[in-house]
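Thread: "does anyone have the structure for this chain?"

Original post by V.I.:
We have the sequence but no experimental structure in hand. Need at least a predicted one for the grant figures.
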Amino acid sequence: MSEDSPVIAIDGPSGSGKGVITHKLAAHLGFHILDSGALYRLIGLAAKKHAISFDDEAALAEQARVLTVRFEPTGDAEEPLRILLEGVDVTLELRTDEAGVDASRVAPLPGVRDGIGELQRSFKQPPGLVADGRDMGTVVFTDATVKIYLTASAQARAERRYNQLKDKDIGVNLHDLFQSIQARDERDMNRKVAPLKPAEDAHVIDSTEIDIDEVFRQVLTIVKEKLGSKP
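Reply from O.Q.:
Generated one for you, tokens below.
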């Protein structure tokens, strides 16, 4: 880990555009990527693979500590990362709503968060890191150079997720997605451990009424100002 590598923390609820902005920003700057949400989804997937109960916090925490994961750039704008769990490509599995729900179940567990913390921080490498998650700026990288909090209405996020999954031929119901997103927001924002909220020094951007290109423009302007160069 390098103490000289800047970290850009991008937090927010599901469907707020964190992933797209993270990948666009990392590509623009040449920085590494941490998809922390994928790590929690991977723990949920690994738990099912190894028949670990979601009620067994100790076993889930151990799974977090021994998680074997690799992120591989694909060069594909639609799916910029290939994610491997124990050497197996699980990228599409991780994008399902079921995987998101499982991630929301394991993420609040203190043992899991402790187990995964060292792995998350190990992604901080030169020339810099863009970290996507729900507590990147509030817990994992409290000294991040830039903190961004992206949000949008639950309806807008459900529609975006619906279109994203439909384009990948993953069957999903819009109403069910909306209810799932609302339930996840409730869990994530009200959990006792690392609740979802903007860091006090975060720049908050609401993308309900603006497209992803405008969001990226606003984020890039903030980042360039913080890093000391012009967009």
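V.I.: this helps a lot. The two ends are 27 Å apart (CA to CA).
O.Q.: and The chain has one domain: 7-225.
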